[in-house]
Design a protein that fits this description.
Layout: H1 2-5, E1 27-30, H2 51-62, E2 70-72, H3 79-82, H4 88-99, H5 103-111, H6 122-142, E3 147-150, H7 172-183, E4 192-196, H8 203-208, E5 215-222, E6 249-254, H9 261-279, E7 283-288, H10 305-315, E8 323-327, H11 333-347, H12 363-376, H13 389-392, H14 414-423, E9 425-427, E10 433-435, H15 446-451, E11 454-459, H16 466-474, E12 496-502, E13 506-509, E14 512-513, E15 517-518, E16 521-524, E17 534-542, H17 543-553, H18 567-573, E18 579-581, E19 590-597, E20 600-606, H19 609-617, H20 627-639, H21 645-657
Parallel strand pairs: 1-2, 1-3, 3-8, 4-5, 4-7, 5-6, 7-8, 11-20
Antiparallel strand pairs: 9-10, 11-17, 12-17, 13-16, 14-15, 18-19, 19-20
The structure holds N-{4-[(3-aminopropyl)amino]butyl}acetamide and zinc ion.
N-{4-[(3-aminopropyl)amino]butyl}acetamide binds near residues 155, 167, 198, 289 and 328.
Amino acid sequence: MAMAGESSGKKIGDCDGKVAGNRQRKVGLIYDETMCKHDTPDGEDHPECPDRIRVIWEKLQLAGVSQRCVVLGSSKAEDKHLQLVHTKDHVNLVKSISTKQKDYRRNRIASQLNSIYLNGGSSEAAYLAAGSVVKLAEKVAEGELDCGFAIVRPPGHHAEADEAMGFCLFNNVAVAASFLLNERPDLGVKKILIVDWDVHHGNGTQKMFWKDPRVLFFSVHRHEYGGFYPAGDDGDYNMVGEGPGEGFNINVPWDQGRCGDADYLAAWDHILIPVAREFNPDVIFLSAGFDAAINDPLGGCCVTPYGYSVMLKKLMEFAQGKIVLALEGGYNLDSIAKSSLACVQVLLEDKQIQGPPEAYPFESTWRVIQAVRKRLCTYWPSLADELSWKLINQKTPTPIILISSSDSETEDDAQGLLDQMSKLSIENPQGTLLENHQVEPASTSWRADLAKVDVWYASFGSNMWKPRFLCYIQGGQVDGLKKVCVGSMDKSPPKETVWETFPHRLFFGRESSVGWGVGGVAFTNPLANLIDQTHMCLYRITLEQFNDVLSQENGLNVDSDSPVFDLAALQLVDNKGSILEAPLNSWYGNVVCLGKERDIPILTMTCTLSAVEKFKSGEIPIRPPAKAYANTLIRGLVEGGRLSKEEAEAYIDKAVSKPL
Ligand code: Q9C
Ligand code: ZN
């Protein structure tokens, strides 16, 4: 098209004297300290903090790259531009925040929103964030700049037409994309690709362009079957758009939280890049959150600055390199500064930075990529071919984080399980091959380390009865249980016991168990839901003790050289909604973090999601609990003061009779 063929940057003139075609690209940067005024009203710490944009700006200056860019002042968005994607009410609400005289009025508004704080600086920052992306986009579309990076906050991609959420007030990128399409038709921008690599799904952007074929929205994010923020089905790969927009919405939903460069680049090479080639955008927006970066406290993924630079480089092949980056999330200050620098160096076409050694995607990554390709291949023929067997065999086996069980012993042959585990090689995302039993040198020091960390062990089965749980700590046997426990190495009792209710489904299944005889044992659906409520008894114990409980439940020895569930595993699940699926056939191959209680993670153990499917299909039987087992649960609920005897019996009956 006409605009796209014109050379860019002619209005500003060559800044470094290189001839056109081989000249230094004009890279715009927008940063404004005013956006730091948006902060928590009470000075409380929050991951979405003012320093996020400061550290990025400082990094670019220290590295000497901002000096090679065109630095622009920020601009406030105009209401009519905001209203291209937001309702009038929403714009007015955000505007009104600064006029409120008192924090409590703002706090009231914020408390009705999902993951939002507000202070006196919030309105101005939100207007500047959106307006700055508009300004940068306009200059890039005009050709005054080649590309650019708007270092803005608050972020935008969760903000919906009529709703602020997920730290986002206005949807900065959506406002700017809509501005180009609707307010500046003279610039000839007819097709826009929005790439969202923030670790969270860009729900707001998706909805705003759901039926719009002019905007191809691509989001890659942690999804975990709807368990990761923003929870639900919106980020599913089946969400492809509607009406004229059908096929113009692409989600790549990771089902686990350890993805790194290899996984992201596989999504690029086998989904995004072929589609971008077919779509042939006039301009690209990048919702550049850096919370999939290695060491991000919310993301849990491990994309390196090198990974980001390669992903960006690949996008610059399209739209004549007209690409507008807008900061979204990213909460490790060091990681976001380094990742941002790597990206600006790509925009400047500096020499490619060095990366870590070649690694392979996870097996689950190939599964997701294949599902996405299949769902979208009618709209994008370049996705139609089956990926070659050779390609998808280049994979990292899913690391076995733990083999856990719930409150009842697993029926799997524990030694057989151990044998299988010892044969497996585990590769980490960086590609270093680790032999399973050499992951950690044989050591007894793990006990000392893990003894320093407390967790809440949330029991929903027989362990709710304290004497039964204490068997796992102090050793021994209780009524109805057909075996003796050895106890934990550290025999100190739980420091605290509290009861809580969680939105998960309790059910009973399997034919019989060694410990309790004929009848099912308790499981809880790893996924939360809005209807069900499961009572759980939380014991505050050390991570060392938690390991010993796990081992005993699995029939393993407690004097192992290495922990089953170590600090790294804790870090991986330390995020509400995280699920670790053990790829083996154990009954309770899944540890789920249910959230936190006074900043201490709450862990429970249950079956995998695939087992839930088998319970549903009848492949694994649903069975009422053995009598002795049910009595133990009831005693737990009654003696713990949680329910009356009648209530406890009714609670178990309901879990037994209600279909899954
Ligand atoms: N249970 C961005 O990265 N987490 N937003 C809230 C509540 C909110 C992230 C957890 C995460 C929002 C732009
Ligand atoms: Zn995010």
